[in-house]
Design brief:
The chain is α+β, with helices and mostly antiparallel strands. The chain has helices spanning 6-12, 38-57, 104-110, 114-133, 137-140, and strands at 64-69, 87-90, 98-103. It has a domain at 36-73 and 83-140: Zincin-like (2-Layer Sandwich). The N and C termini lie far apart (76 Å).
Length: 150
């Protein structure tokens, strides 16, 4: 026996509204801050800090790639004996451009609130860029070391 009619058509429709409450959707829309993860907010902080330095360094800054990783590798470099690194610089090699890696979890562990996190991320990015280009962090960014970030 084959059933036909409206109830059979509803049973086969994967979008069916089983309890009459309407189509289900996301809990928050993409533009709502609740939809942005901590990782995405941290990535935005790194990009904003890097963008501030772009005007000071000019075209050579465009050849630098930025990356964010959760934690550094378990094998520290010989010069990293003072603790967990917050970032690393990898100079250009062959066709591979220079890369600056910022480590999210160690930086988040050092910040008490969002304001301090913004300041620490900005300082780490400035330190790494300064190390890559061989300049003093204070010469690169006048706000370096400023907790307020103003």
């Amino acid at each position: 026996m084959t059933s036909s009619g409206p109830s059979a058509a509803r049973a086969r429709d994967p979008r069916r509204d089983r309890h009459g409450r309407g189509v289900r959707g996301p809990l928050a829309w993409p533009s709502v801050p609740a939809m942005v993860s901590r990782r995405e907010r941290f990535d935005d902080l790194v990009l904003d800090s890097a963008a501030r330095l772009e005007g000071r360094l000019g075209p050579r800054f465009h050849e630098v790639e930025f990356a964010v990783e959760d934690v550094p590798t378990s094998e520290p470099a010989p010069w990293e004996r003072d603790g967990v690194p917050l970032g690393r610089v990898f100079p250009a090699h062959g066709r591979q451009p220079a890369r600056i890696v910022i480590y999210r979890r160690p930086i988040e562990a050092r910040a008490q609130d969002q304001r301090e996190l913004t300041a620490v991320v900005g300082d780490v990015v400035v330190e790494q860029v300064a190390a890559l280009f061989g300049v003093q962090p204070g010469d690169l960014d006048p706000r370096y070391g400023d907790v307020d970030g103003d």
